[in-house]
Every structure is written in C-alpha cells, then in structure tokens.
C-alpha cells in the first residue's frame, strides 16, 4: 500500500475504507463517476496543475469530448445531461496524457491500455445486466500451446450448475475477439456471460459452454501481416484450444453442437476457421467483419475453398450462418464483398444491416440475437 | 475504439496491432515498461505539458519515487538499476495526478483505483510464476446473497482436471482479502492460483478448491465501523457463501477438509469466523493481522468466545493455526496482543516473525508456506 497504515488509524472506529491507508487526501475521497437519480453523471478528477481536462470515449457516447471545469482545490468536474442506459468506455485527456479515472475501479483493459467503464442501468441495458438469475461461472483458463510453444490463456464460461459435476454434456460456442482486444474482452466489455445467463434463464438459449481464446500471437502472420493466410492463431485454435477443451470440459463432441462466432478480427477468424472446417462446425456468426486483407484476398480464399463452397450440400451442412454489420461501419465494403463471394457460390446466410458502427453496443446486441439461434433441435 | 479504423488502414499489410485504430501517435507506439536482459527496466510516459513525472509504488520497490526525465517529443523516461525478480505495483505521479501506465495493460485493480503491474521474472518469483504445469481454472462466480439482499461476486479456483466432471470431491480453502482489496486481489496481485498450481504440481499440496469471497459490504458494520463485532460480511459468508459453495462445488463437507485464511482484514475475518465455528473449520491462517478494533475489542472477543477458548479439547480440534507478521509491519502490536490472548487460554499456534511489512511479497510467501500444511492425513 502507498502510505503505511498506522495502527492508530486502523483502530479509529469511524474511518471509511477509502481513508484506511493514510490521512485522507482529496484524490482518496473523490467520487467519480456519480450517477444521479435522473441519470445525470458527474465526473471528477483531482489535477491541480493541469491546463485542460477533457472526457474522451471509445464508441459513441453523448459525453464525448466534453471539457471539465476547474473548481476549488484543483478538482475538475462536469455533470452531463441524463445519459441513456448503456455501458460506456471513457478516460480523461489531461494535457494530452490519457488517464483512466483513478476514482473508478471498473477498468476496461485492452491490448494497449486501461480505460474506465461507466455502467448506466436502465431498460436498454437489461439484456446484459447482472440480474437475479442463476449465473454461470467465468474462468480464466491457462494451457500450454504446443503449436505456439507458449503458455496461453483463454476465458471459459460454464453454465449454471456445471461445477456440481456429473456427466451432463453441453454444446460449445467458440467466441472470438477483435483486433484491439484479448480473451477477456467479450466478457469485460461485451458482457457475454451475463447476456447468456439472461438468455438461459428466460428459456431463449440452451445451456452451453462458451470458450473465448486469445486471438493474437507473438508469431508472424495474421490479419495485419503481409500474408494473412498464414495465421498462427488458427494452428493454436485447431491444434491446442479445441483439443484442450474437448479433454477438459464436458462438451458434446460433434458438429451439431459446435458453433463459432466473432467480432471484427474474430469474424474474420470465424470465416477462416469455420468454412474450411464444416466437419467440425455447423453454426457461424460473423459480426462487423468479412474477409479482410490485401487486394486478391477474397479470390485466394475462394480458390482455396472451392470444393467446400461449391459442395451441393453446403446449405444443409451449415445450420446457422448469421452475419451483421452496422450501416456506419467502416468495414461495410469488406462485409459486402464477402457476401458477394458467398452469393457467387449460392451459400445461404442471414444478413442484417444494423444502425451504428464498429462498436460494443452493436456486438452485445448481435450476440443477444445470435445465441438463441444455436443448438436448436427444431432447425438441426 | 477511439479513432475509427479506416478500411485503408485495416487493409495495409504491415500495420502493427498498436497502430490499427488510426495514424500511430507517440502514446500508441510507446513501450513501457521494457525489461532488458540484465533486468534494468525502462519506464516511459508521453506527457508533453507535464512539469514533473515521478514513479510511485505500492509496497517496497527499489525504484520508488524516482523522477523521470523529459526527453524529445514530450516523452518522459527513466531506466532503473537491475531489479530483483518480483511482481511490483507502480503508477506515475504527473503533476500530482496519479496515472496508471497507459502503455501497460496489466492492471492491479483495488477498491479505489487502478495501478500497473510489473512482473520481473527470476528465481525469487518462480514460486508464483505461470509455469508449464497443469493449471487450475480461476472463475468469477456470481451469487445472490440473501443476507445482504444483493448480487455478489466471488472468485473460485478449481484444481487441474476439475471441469471434466465426475464425482471426485476436494477439500476447500476459504481465502480472504485485505481492506484495500476485493475478491480478485488474491489472484490478480497475490497470484494464489499460480502458487497453488505450482504446489500441487510438485506434490507439496493436495488438490483443493479455493474460494475467495468479497469481504466488504455496503452495509454498516465491519472492521472500520464503531461496532466491528457486527459484520454483515460474516453473515454473508456463513449464510450465503458457504452454502452456495457446498451446493455448487464438489467439496468434502466436513471440518477436516475446510480451512480458512486471510491477510490483514481477512486475517481478522479468519479469527472472527474460524474460532467461533470450530465445528466447521479445523485449519486457520492469519497473515499480517490480529483482532483489530477499538480499546476493549480483544477482551470482548475473549468473553464472547470463552467456552470455545477454554474448551480442553481446543488444541485437538484445531489442526493448523498458522500466524505470521512482518517485523516492520504496523499491525505488529495487534498481532502480539492477539497471541497474548491465545496464550492466556493455552491455545496452540505456530507463529513466525518475518522480514518486511504489510506487503504482497509477504502475503505471497505466507500462502506458499501455509498451503502445504493443509489437509494432510498425517496430521489430522
């Protein structure tokens, strides 16, 4: 701890938790963000020497780029208009330094940095809220990847009651993250676990295991490399992640009970893993994505997978192929080019344009719509 | 994401992940911390308008309070001497604003704020390192606390192989956090999961389930309240946490297979829960703690628990009672007063003074020494 806790302070009977570790200073007692009953939110930051403090956000937010005002004792603050319910990602720009809110211990961690999360409850946020329903467990799981020669981590959701044991087996959804994220993003920001808890509790989804691996590797290749066809993650996924899951979890090991989906880079991984491996997967979800790559990428994919794409039984083999992209999403041209490729081979899919862009609000909504389609006896 | 990813950028084949989301800016490409082969560490922060940038640390660290030097283009930096292997907690003080390192996505989250973690590998850090051994799963687990009327979260470690199911049952250790922390601290900073993985892999500990509940509640009472005897967490623990664990996990539900331990406030909880409930617990660990409270607290505890403390069989009932505090720890007077109370009743315990103070390096080491004592057929 920062300032040694003195015995005298510890024994003082009326200390707040925030003040345990020394005489309370302004940054120790400041509350931020504070959500008022009318959903106005007050942000505060102690920065006595700063020249300017501005709110920044990831994705759409009505408080993006609002400046804070300096008040007494070096505390900068701003109160927004009432905010629509949502899970927002924000930070402060303090004289050009990106600062996560030191008074807010809800972080949003991605590959580069730490942001802060602001959860404004309400009707629009109910589907991903932590409600009083049975919850699955969300585990950090470590494994040794032989294909990468590295220790790796994935996140695994097991449905309510799973840890009691027994012999019941479950279908499995492999859920892949985007390029700016890692294996914890689908739950930390995407709230995949609560979305699926709520769907299971309302009878809209079957109990399932959800496996969220880490899609980046330190090896050459992958989405941003000159040869995106070579992707060490795909070797890790097929050679290590899936066998680990099959050995260690009570899944039903057949294609009818295996689905794969992802957002952005994860949708690209879904297409590159799912379509060439229809012996393993029967259900796919592609969110805000497509066959990204340099000129000629789609044609290369088409040639390499011609036998699969032109298999007269392909539309019987694929039970769910759900694709969505926001109308304002910069990936729309790639999505459309990918749909055109599927059309050339008469591969059926369900596609929808949604409002909005390349954002977590869309990915949460897509997951909520996609998961109820999976593992349904009536369609398989 | 912050700056919309353009299709052109996405398709560029040579972009680094760090630069995906817009033209690369200095803060996007800066690497910090960088550990050199000789264990010198370079910290860097882009803060063009700052007047001073200083390293701050939680717990002991050879780089505490070192000032960074401003270089070209607003980048502040410092390179330390070679650092002993350890897991350090640090942040920057930028003109009096506490800033987690924006280039380091390993956070240390506590109740108030976000710090950064620096993991310097080496011999002294081996016992808590993520090694190539079978790993247990570490789950976030949500439950509804009837006693608090609130949804709550705990962390649960299950040993390697647990998720395969079956009917094998395991002993359980309840592991409680300190006042500045929450249910994720024992693993995020304490590395309890890796410590226990390593102990199990080397045969020094039995496979066990470890339950790490959240020790703070929003209700009045507890360590820092005027009436520390009243603690809503204890009701939650006995009335909700333990029954939830017994219903949902394959534990062995008897006192020989139940241990409880904690650090600081968690050690205080251990004493307040363990001693009055020896029908449930046979093994206890008290790290950097004691019966904290206003004058008269220990005497009140002694009176309330006289029948237990003076039970002639108490030393048969308690199989492990392991207590440790650092010589420089400010809680030492409370520890000594608590040991004196146990001595008055001839309650046996193992006690050790260690080097150091009220710090995570001590708590990791204590856990590593305590866990091998548990659930041993030869002593029970």
Explain what the structure shows.
2 copies of one chain form a homodimer. With 380 residues, chain A is an alpha/beta fold. Chain A is built from 11 helices and 17 strands. In chain A, the strands form 3 sheets. In chain A, strands 10-11-13-12-14-15-16-17 form an 8-stranded mixed sheet, with helices on both faces. In chain A, strands 3, 6, 7, 8 and 9 form a 5-stranded antiparallel sheet that branches. A 4-stranded antiparallel sheet of chain A has the order 1-2-5-4, with no helix packed on it. Chains A and B meet through helix 1, strand 7, strand 10 and strand 11 of A and helix 1, strand 7, strand 10 and strand 11 of B.
Helix/strand layout:
The structure is a homodimer of 380-residue chains.
Chain A (H helix, E strand, L loop, with lengths): L6 H5 L14 H4 L4 E2 L5 E6 L6 E6 L10 E2 L4 E5 L6 E9 L2 E3 L7 E3 L4 E7 L16 E9 L4 E9 L13 E5 L8 H4 L3 H10 L7 E4 L19 H17 L9 E6 L1 H10 L8 E5 L9 H8 L1 H4 L4 H4 L2 E7 L5 H13 L5 E5 L5 H11 L10
Parallel strand pairs in A: 12-13, 12-14, 14-15, 15-16, 16-17
Antiparallel strand pairs in A: 1-2, 2-5, 3-6, 4-5, 6-7, 6-9, 8-9, 10-11, 11-13
What does this entry show, briefly?
The structure is a homodimer of 380-residue chains. With 380 residues, the first copy, chain A, is of the alpha/beta class. Chain A has eleven helices and 17 strands.
Please name the defining characteristics of this protein:
homodimer; 380 residues; alpha/beta; 11 helices
Helix content of chain A: 10-25%
How far is the N terminus from the C terminus of chain A? 56 Å
Q: What's the multimeric state? A: homodimer
The shape of chain A, in one word, is globular
Computed CA radius of gyration of chain A, to the nearest angstrom:
23 Å
